[in-house]
Design a protein that fits this description.
The structure holds three protein chains of three kinds. Chain A is mainly α. Chain A is built from 17 helices and four strands. In chain A, the strands form two sheets. Chain A has a two-stranded antiparallel sheet. Chain A has a two-stranded antiparallel sheet with strand order 3-4. In chain A, β3 and β4 form a beta hairpin. The longest helix of chain A has 35 residues. Chain A is globular. In chain B, the strands form three sheets. Chain B has a seven-stranded mixed beta sheet with strand order 7-6-8-9-10-14-15, sandwiched between helices. In chain B, strands 2-1-3-4-5 form a five-stranded parallel beta sheet, with helices on both faces. Chain B folds into two domains: 209 residues, Rossmann fold (3-Layer(aba) Sandwich); 161 residues, Rossmann fold (3-Layer(aba) Sandwich), CATH 3.40.50.2300. By secondary structure, chain B is α/β, with parallel strands linked by helices. Chain C has a two-stranded antiparallel sheet. Chain C is built from 14 helices and two strands; from the N terminus they run ααααββαααααααααα. The longest helix of chain C is centred in the N-terminal third of the chain and has 32 residues. In chain C, 74% of the residues lie in helices and 2% in strands. Chain C has a single domain, classed as ABC transporter involved in vitamin B12 uptake, BtuC (Orthogonal Bundle), CATH 1.10.3470. The chains are: A mainly alpha, B alpha/beta, C mainly alpha. Chains in contact: A-B, A-C, B-C. At the B-C interface, α2, α7 and α8 of B face α1, α9 and α10 of C.
Chain lengths: 407, 409, 315
């Protein structure tokens, strides 16, 4: 039922006001979501931390685009609709080879081997110019493929539906895999691999299978990318792409199924939104990441899941007051923090670039002390309020503890 | 649970719908797509300042046929994928001109995407003005009608440099040190060919490709160059690679003269300090050409931004675009493109023209040396550029393999 | 021939010792706390920038002392108010937390000092060369660098084995609870170790920043290599880090001087290798072109074959 609702929402998005932009943004988010979901099969479901996952998405993308080029040249006949499968298989083949010896190691060694391997592939992209296209990348034309039902895929609308359909299928499949015995044992392997061995399953086998499946979907995300942009460059293989999917999965929440989707939507949206208004958005992203790890390691989806659970147990009043206060305090602190940084950034070039900063919809003069004071007070007040609310909550919890009440 | 996150996404999208830059009627909007954040942000921010400065200048002199020029900045973070996403946004916002120059992969991605878009949507065509990419492929095998390049490409630069070197009898042994990617390999190949053709007596004593941006310690390379007995080194290393190489050359007491493509770029003399003295630089402009118009430009720019004016090519982009639009009496990209190709422009240092076959600008080039005692210095280091040789546009011209398809007029 | 090899070998040792200074901190932190500090190279960068700032004000020699201390204090603060709270969530969370600081420090540096390289230069007193025989003039600053790193290694060894704090630290390595029961403030020990490790990275930055370039990209450039060193040498082994650093330093510097490829090797044995296809491309690559790849290749091989590294403990 929930799935049907989502499908409905995805169908009506093209009717949104700024259709063109909404379509391309949604496609971007969908690709990111598939990638993040595939990554979470490793992180959240099997407990494998990988720093090189972008390699498999990139390989999938390169395989897809090379195949598309062959289709453009008339060498092969393959309708565009089936291309994501090809990319997925490409990613999985690579994952098969790499995963076979990588998943036998402990999780720390696995993390490092993925890092080293990722850097290796990225660095070698310049050397194998025929495969990776060097600086130019590899391009293809999605409209020059055998047509099915008269669909040419020249318009963004058709591409949107293609990408959304495959993304939806991928999400459903990943969800189902999580529910199979393999998925369940993978969760167990994440928690206690030794015990899993004693139950009778081979933890390395489990890791290996999940790894291959994860690279299958990563490859699929890569080929969707290739279809959307009609170009794949070596940048898709790099560490920053791997780091980004890591953040998406983690900030969204690696312990729930939706977490990575939420993270993908959030981070993609932030990139698009924040990037327009400030040059410091990477800094804000890093700070957000640090805060999430420190205070909400289950991610945003995990946080919401917890709150929903306690909501269901009917302890709304006290908790929601605290949550509300916390949110307000955090927002005030955030406003202060961001304003201070933006002021500082502008102040550096104020002597020549103009001392007026456009922030929160108003213009402020960077050279006068008032904005600084205001921002500083905001920031401190926010932090102090947070601490205050935190202490109040702790006191309330201990009181409840003593009285034997539910929290 | 799932439903909730989907609701979020709808909210986010609707929010996105509200974010759209305002459109004024009588303005010509140019979308500037380059890195404004991230590790190579300096490229984009510097170029953007030039664009805004020159656009304001053009507007203060009446604009283009009375219409105002507006530069809309888009941060692509140096990524081709991001640039393509921005392209969709730009097309949606009804902006018909896009300019970019900070990165070769981005240029290829944009050029390809613009061509495909224009073919599929001829009534919403977009013109791509490349202000700063030097990779030859953009006006050779990957040339397209909808792309114009306002920067002398690498083959032109290599020819000018090797012509100059060939005219110096003191040069006998040349070493080539270039980054290991398309442009670097191209320089290595073309320079070798051209030197052999013009001065068969000159010996190429070694050629090396270094991995781009990965080497911290250039001493082994300096040692190799020293051991080869070279008296000259040709290098198109840029950014940190150029800085590290120049520093290592000084530390290693390298006897050879460095002939560079990027040695005089802002930031390099400051980081390299005294090690930079004697460095040879090939460019389309420098601050000591002794022309009052240029000097006024430099002074005004420095007054406004506190930095050195540098990208004359951006001025050329906007001035020639302005002339083309005035001649075409239109701002429609197709008409302007036809007016722009073949356009001749009289610059203060000589004639330049936009070659029709491949949309490559043919302009004068200068070979200069970084030394002290010049009227204008770079980055307040006391070191400035002094012209050694001027190369006219005619002499700088290099053939092209471009065969472009032209849309119906 | 010999002369051609002396300089790369010397440079390899110098570079290797710089890597050691950087990676020793990571090893130390991992031994104590089981955390891989991804932000380590960022402290290297901070050390260089602090040194630039301080030396602009009071000169190089005070900067040599003060900049690492500043980096160390910052590291300790990070541990005390950040990492300590994350420890309860597991090793993965700790690693990711340090990773977030890579981004934050990177952007903060750009905010404060700008995006272009800063002119942090070698001090006048040390910027000359001395004759090393065989017609080679070697920069004194590099010898100074060797001196500092060797001195640092010796001091570190003495600190860990001969002083009281060192013994407490060693004990906390394997039996943190017991050390706690004995009355020592174990979290404080952890904070100290983390700060000390970051200080070591800062020291490497002070030295390396003016020898090479001090710009916002320097953390990324050196960080990955330092990581490789730690893995190859073995997480948790200082001796292994030293050997691996020297190995990789030599590998990088010597391989750059080599112009041959695998195909050339085969030609020596009179086997002709084809010229088309990706395998042939691989064969014809001359060693100096793949030089930057070699450390990563080495790392992947070691992890596949002997995951605990050369001298590491079993992981």
């Amino acid at each position: 039922m929930v799935w049907a609702g989502c499908a409905l929402v995805l169908l009506i998005i093209p009717l949104a006001p700024t259709s063109g932009f909404a379509l391309s943004l949604s496609s971007q988010m969908a690709i990111a979501a598939v990638f993040a979901l595939s990554y979470n099969m490793l992180l959240g479901q099997t407990g494998l931390l990988s720093f090189g996952h972008a390699v498999f998405m990139g390989i999938g993308g390169f395989v897809a685009i090379h195949v598309l080029r062959s289709v453009n040249a008339g060498e092969w006949q393959l309708p565009l609709i089936l291309l994501p499968l090809i990319g997925a298989l490409g990613g999985a083949c690579f994952g098969l080879v790499f995963g076979w010896f990588a998943t036998r190691r402990s999780s720390t060694a696995f993390a490092m081997i993925t890092l080293g391997f990722g850097e290796l592939v990225y660095a070698s992209a310049f050397i194998f110019v025929d495969l990776y296209g060097g600086e130019q990348g590899i391009t293809a034309d999605r409209t020059l493929a055998p047509k099915i039902l008269g669909l040419e895929f020249a318009s963004q609308l058709q591409v949107y539906y293609l990408i959304m359909s495959w993304a939806f299928i991928a999400a459903v499949l990943i969800f189902i895999i999580g529910r199979t015995p393999l998925g369940r044992v993978a969760l167990a392997t994440r928690d206690n691999a030794e015990r899993v061995a004693f139950i009778g399953y081979n933890p390395n086998r489990v890791r290996f299978l999940m790894f291959v499946l994860s690279t299958f979907f990563a490859g699929m995300a890569g080929s969707l990318f290739a279809i959307d942009y009609e170009i794949v460059t070596y940048g898709s293989l790099g560490l920053s792409a791997s780091a980004q999917v890591l953040m998406m999965a983690f900030i969204g929440g690696s312990s729930t199924f939706v977490g990575p989707i939420v993270g993908a939507i959030l981070i993609t949206g932030l990139q698009v939104l924040l990037g327009q208004y400030t040059d410091l958005w990477i800094l804000y992203l890093g700070v957000l990441f640090a805060i999430v790890i420190r205070f909400a390691p289950d991610g945003l989806a995990g946080l919401i899941a917890k709150e929903c659970a306690s909501w269901r147990l009917n302890h709304i009043r006290g908790r929601s007051v605290l949550i509300g206060l916390r949110t307000i305090a955090a927002v005030i602190a955030a406003i202060g923090f961001v304003t201070l940084l933006e002021l500082a950034s502008r102040a550096k070039t104020a002597s020549v670039g103009g001392a007026v900063l456009r922030v929160w919809g108003t213009h402020v003069d960077v050279m006068s002390p008032w904005p600084w004071l205001f921002a500083g007070i905001c920031f401190l007040m926010g932090l102090i309020s947070l601490r205050f609310v935190h202490l109040a909550a702790a006191r309330r919890m201990s009181v409840a503890d003593v009285n034997g009440e539910p929290k | 649970m799932l439903h909730r996150s989907r609701c979020w996404s709808v909210v986010v999208w609707l929010f996105m719908a509200a974010v759209h830059p305002a459109v004024a009627q009588d303005t010509i909007r140019i979308a500037f797509v380059d890195p404004l954040s991230g590790p190579i942000a300096i490229l984009g921010t510097r170029a953007l300042k030039h664009f805004q400065f020159l656009a304001d200048r053009i507007n203060s002199m009446g604009g283009i046929d009375g219409k105002k020029l507006q530069i809309d900045a888009f941060d692509n973070e140096g990524s081709p994928e991001r640039s393509l996403i921005l392209l969709k946004q730009i097309i949606d916002s009804n902006i018909r001109y896009i300019t970019q120059g900070g990165s070769t992969p981005v240029a290829y991605a944009l050029s390809d995407a613009v061509t495909k878009h224009n073919r599929r949507n001829p009534d919403k065509s977009v013109l791509f003005l490349g202000w700063g990419n030097t990779d030859p492929g953009l006006t050779n095998e990957k040339c397209t009608f909808w792309h114009f390049r306002f920067d002398a490409e690498i083959n032109m630069r290599t020819k000018a440099l090797t012509d100059y070197m060939a005219s110096l009898p003191k040069i006998k042994k040349v070493y080539l040190l270039n980054p290991d990617y398309s442009s670097g390999i191209q320089v290595e190949r073309i320079a070798t060919e051209m030197l052999r053709a013009k001065r068969p007596d000159v010996e190429i004593v070694g050629s090396e490709r270094i991995p781009l941006g990965k080497i911290q310690d250039f001493t082994p390379y300096v040692a190799k160059i020293q051991a080869s007995g070279a008296d000259s080194v040709i290098t198109m290393n840029y950014g940190p690679d150029m800085i590290l190489f120049a520093k290592a050359a000084k530390q290693g007491n390298l006897n050879a003269t460095l002939y560079t493509f990027f040695g005089g770029y802002p930031g390099i003399p400051a980081a390299v300090g005294e090690s930079g003295k004697g460095l040879i630089f090939l460019s389309e402009w420098h601050s000591n050409l002794g022309i009052p118009e240029f000097e006024q430009l430099s002074k005004d720019y420095e007054k406004r931004y506190g930095e050195d004016f540098f990208h004359w090519k951006i001025a050329l982009t906007l001035y020639m675009l302005s002339k083309a639009m005035t001649e075409a009496k239109s701002v429609d990209p197709l008409k302007v493109a036809y007016a722009l190709e073949g356009l001749r422009y009289e610059t203060p240092v000589g004639e330049a023209w936009m070659r029709k076959e491949d949309h490559q600008i043919i302009e004068p080039l200068f070979i200069s040396v970084l030394t002290d005692g010049q009227k204008f210095d770079i980055d307040h280091t006391g070191l400035g550029l002094k012209t050694l040789r001027k190369v006219t546009a005619r002499d700088a011209e290099v053939a092209t393999t471009c065969k472009m398809e032209r849309p119906a007029h | 021939m010999v002369r051609l090899l002396i300089e790369p070998v010397l440079n390899g040792i110098v570079y290797g010792l710089l890597l050691f200074m950087l990676s020793s901190g990571v090893t130390l932190i991992f031994s104590m706390m089981g955390v891989v500090n991804f932000a380590h190279a960022s402290f290297y960068m901070l050390g260089a920038y602090f040194a630039y700032q301080i030396s602009s004000a009071v000169g190089f020699w005070p900067a040599l002392v003060l900049a690492p201390i500043c980096a160390g204090i910052l590291g300790a603060a990070l541990e005390r108010w950040g990492l300590r709270g994350v420890r309860q969530h597991g090793h993965v969370a700790e690693m990711l937390f340090t990773f977030s600081f890579v981004l934050i420090i990177q952007e903060a540096v750009q905010l404060i000092w700008g995006r272009v390289a800063v002119p942090y230069a070698i001090p006048e007193e040390l910027s000359f060369s001395i004759s090393a025989g065989v017609g080679i003039n070697y920069p004194v600053y590099r010898l100074f660098m060797v001196g500092i790193s060797v001195g640092m290694f010796a001091a570190l060894l003495l600190l860990i084995t001969k002083t009281r704090i060192g013994i407490i630290v060693q004990a906390s390595l394997t039996h943190p609870e017991m050390v706690g029961f004995l009355g020592h403030n174990v979290p404080k020990v952890f904070t100290f170790v983390f700060g000390f490790g970051c200080g070591l990275a800062g020291l490497a930055g002070v030295i390396g920043g003016n020898m090479f370039s001090t710009d916002p990209g320097m953390a990324h450039a050196l960080g990955a290599i330092a990581f490789v060193v730690v893995v190859v040498g073995g997480l948790g082994s200082l001796g292994g880090a030293l050997i691996a650093s020297l190995l990789i330093g030599l590998l990088q510097n010597v391989s750059i001087s080599v112009d041959g490829s695998l195909a050339d090797l085969f030609r020596l044995a009179n086997i002709q290798v084809g010229t088309t296809g990706p395998i042939a491309e691989l064969m014809h690559l001359s060693l100096n072109r793949v030089a930057p790849l070699l450390p990563y290749l080495l790392m992947v091989v070691i992890l596949a074959v002997r995951p605990r590294g050369l001298l590491g403990r079993r992981i």
